[in-house]
Amino acid sequence: MIGRIAGRIEYKATDHVLIDVRGIGYVVYCTDRVLASLPGVGEAAALYTDLLVREDLLQLFGFPTLVEKEWHRLLMSVQGVGAKASLAILGALGADGVSRAIALGDWNAIKVARGIGPKTAQRVVIELKDKAPAVMAMGAAAPTDTDGDVIEDIVETPKKPAPKRKAPRANATAQPDALSALGNLGYAPGEAAAAVAQAAADAPEADTPMLIRAALKLLAPAN
């Protein structure tokens, strides 16, 4: 299984990118969103990958984070959702958007993706809603950095001291941290995930304490 590709971009097409790793070129299929986020030709790039194996086909699909890769695998487990449909959903919403839509049961958001009808969108939400909290929680530990230092040992140049890792943004782990906090307070994973997802949608730049407070207000019983 090829789980990660790190190398230099040889070319970018409309639905895939060719990454050269020590002289071997890997064709990696990506969403429009991911392709737009990748650097230009000749620059360093790294993607987490999922390998699709069929009798007459081997295809690599690339994702910037482990969370997005996990959503791809889960989306493909839903009846009627193949690799193309999964990429369409992730391309339309991104990993955070998929997490939020499924946690909130918002199948209309899933339906926005190209080629996804109402029945398929509803099936995605129903089958994956219980799995949303676990995937959202992955964000706390999953690395997201894919700049040049990840392939420093691939390029045949004198080794330099590894650059310091950039500190994650203050809100990079806000949702999984808030989800964990609500779990510690005794809330069920499903209701905690829905509250955190709604709070994050209302205030995308909120940090962990703000998300916890907002989620607790949403979870509080109406007077």
From TrEMBL:
NCBIfam families: ruvA (TIGR00084). Residues 170-223 are annotated as: Domain III. It holds the Pfam family RuvA_C. InterPro entries: DNA_helicase_Holl-junc_RuvA_I (IPR013849), NA-bd_OB-fold (IPR012340), RuvA (IPR000085), RuvA_2-like (IPR010994), RuvA_C (IPR011114), RuvA_C_sf (IPR036267). Has three domains with a flexible linker between the domains II and III and assumes an 'L' shape. Domain III is highly mobile and contacts RuvB. Keywords: ATP-binding, Cytoplasm, DNA damage, DNA recombination, DNA repair, DNA-binding, Helicase, Hydrolase, Nucleotide-binding. GO terms for biological process: DNA recombination; DNA repair. Residues 174-220 form the Holliday junction DNA helicase RuvA C-terminal domain. The RuvA-RuvB-RuvC complex processes Holliday junction (HJ) DNA during genetic recombination and DNA repair, while the RuvA-RuvB complex plays an important role in the rescue of blocked DNA replication forks via replication fork reversal (RFR). RuvA specifically binds to HJ cruciform DNA, conferring on it an open structure. The RuvB hexamer acts as an ATP-dependent pump, pulling dsDNA into and through the RuvAB complex. HJ branch migration allows RuvC to scan DNA until it finds its consensus sequence, where it cleaves and resolves the cruciform DNA. One of its GO terms (molecular function) is ATP binding. Homotetramer. Forms an RuvA(8)-RuvB(12)-Holliday junction (HJ) complex. HJ DNA is sandwiched between 2 RuvA tetramers; dsDNA enters through RuvA and exits via RuvB. An RuvB hexamer assembles on each DNA strand where it exits the tetramer. Each RuvB hexamer is contacted by two RuvA subunits (via domain III) on 2 adjacent RuvB subunits; this complex drives branch migration. In the full resolvosome a probable DNA-RuvA(4)-RuvB(12)-RuvC(2) complex forms which resolves the HJ. Belongs to the RuvA family. Residues 1-64 are annotated as: Domain I. GO terms for cellular component: cytoplasm; Holliday junction helicase complex; Holliday junction resolvase complex. Residues 1-62 form the DNA helicase Holliday junction RuvA type domain. It comes from Pelagimonas varians. This is Holliday junction branch migration complex subunit RuvA. Its main location: cytoplasm. The gene is ruvA.
